[in-house]
Inverse folding.
């Protein structure tokens, strides 16, 4: 059987340390490992907010793909690209939608509306749509009028569970996420400010993708008197991040919305109890047995959950054991790529 060749179009640097980029790089590599010809097409960075020149360059690159290839198009581009330009693409399209762009935290109403309309209209042009979670599939059906039959759910893949532990002293609260409003680091910092009577240290790993947010978070931490207890690590490579997970006592991230939340699943593979919010697909990713889930933006509840896991060894042990079991049951990247492969053939 001859496998249909594909082009995977991704904006900017494929090695960017965010969940979406990690997902797409791993799927690209797994498709190739399975024997499929897949060309990586690097598009201009900056999506979904790009200038006219970058938009024109993107449309030109996509319309140049021949019709005997399948185009897999990253969601940052798919939800923002000019609809008329996308309609000129000859190759059948698989849209890779991590979460709808209009659901990003902090958008002005007009911008959110523009992104909603653009993504809704563009999704009508896709032959297949691949999403990372049942939650995102439901949002696309209910709000974006995408036929359910056109959607395939490709859960992210993960390596085998990591049993190595090198606990830090005092206990380490680890958070991993880009410094953007949606990740809710402001909620975590506010919660930590009410826990200074307990022994702990906290570290936030993640790139400064929004400079204003990053500056505000550092100012918030300083005003709360958390210097020396809370450290902003910046982006980390795989080895350095693994070392942080191995040292952690628990994982905490107050995301307001996730289309899946890969970092939560990564915490499960390290057997870490999790404190998080019920935003988007997070309740589907983090089992109740493995974490303490609270309402979005509920600082007192988030702080109470952290306090419980810091002061109740039995609760911590039970959540850690459940996390390890959940981490062991997660799919591998070959499973994810198999779903994408089916979408490519169907397109």
């Amino acid at each position: 059987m001859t496998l249909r060749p594909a082009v995977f179009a991704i904006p900017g640097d494929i090695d960017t340390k965010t969940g979406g980029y990690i997902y797409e790089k791993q799927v690209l590599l797994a498709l190739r490992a399975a024997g499929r010809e897949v060309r990586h097409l690097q598009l201009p960075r900056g999506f979904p907010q790009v200038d006219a020149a970058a938009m024109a360059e993107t449309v030109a690159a996509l319309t140049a793909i021949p019709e005997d290839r399948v185009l897999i198009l990253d969601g940052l581009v798919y939800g923002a690209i000019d609809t008329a330009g996308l309609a000129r693409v000859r190759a059948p399209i698989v849209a890779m939608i991590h979460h709808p762009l209009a659901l990003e935290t902090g958008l002005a109403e007009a911008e959110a509306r523009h992104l909603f309309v653009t993504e809704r209209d563009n999704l009508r042009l896709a032959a297949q749509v691949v999403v990372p979670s049942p939650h995102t599939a439901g949002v696309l059906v209910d709000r974006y009028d995408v036929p359910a039959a056109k959607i395939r759910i490709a859960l992210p893949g993960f390596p085998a569970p990591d049993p190595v532990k090198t606990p830090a002293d005092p206990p380490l609260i680890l958070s991993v996420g880009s410094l953007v409003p949606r990740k809710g680091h402001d909620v975590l910092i506010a919660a930590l400010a009410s826990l200074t009577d307990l022994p702990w240290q906290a570290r936030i790993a993640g790139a400064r993708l929004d400079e204003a947010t990053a500056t505000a978070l550092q100012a918030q931490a300083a005003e709360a008197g958390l210097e020396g207890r809370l450290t902003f690590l910046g982006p980390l490579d795989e080895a350095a991040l693994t070392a942080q997970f191995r040292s952690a006592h628990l994982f905490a991230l107050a995301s307001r919305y996730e289309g899946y939340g890969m970092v939560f699943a990564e915490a499960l593979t390290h057997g870490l109890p999790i404190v998080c919010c019920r935003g988007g697909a997070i309740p589907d990713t983090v089992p109740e047995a493995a974490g303490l889930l609270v309402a979005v933006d509920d600082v007192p509840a988030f702080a109470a959950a952290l306090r419980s896991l810091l002061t109740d060894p039995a609760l911590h042990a039970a959540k850690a054991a459940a996390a390890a079991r959940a981490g062991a049951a997660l799919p591998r990247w070959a499973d994810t790529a198999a779903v994408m492969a089916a979408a490519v053939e169907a397109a």
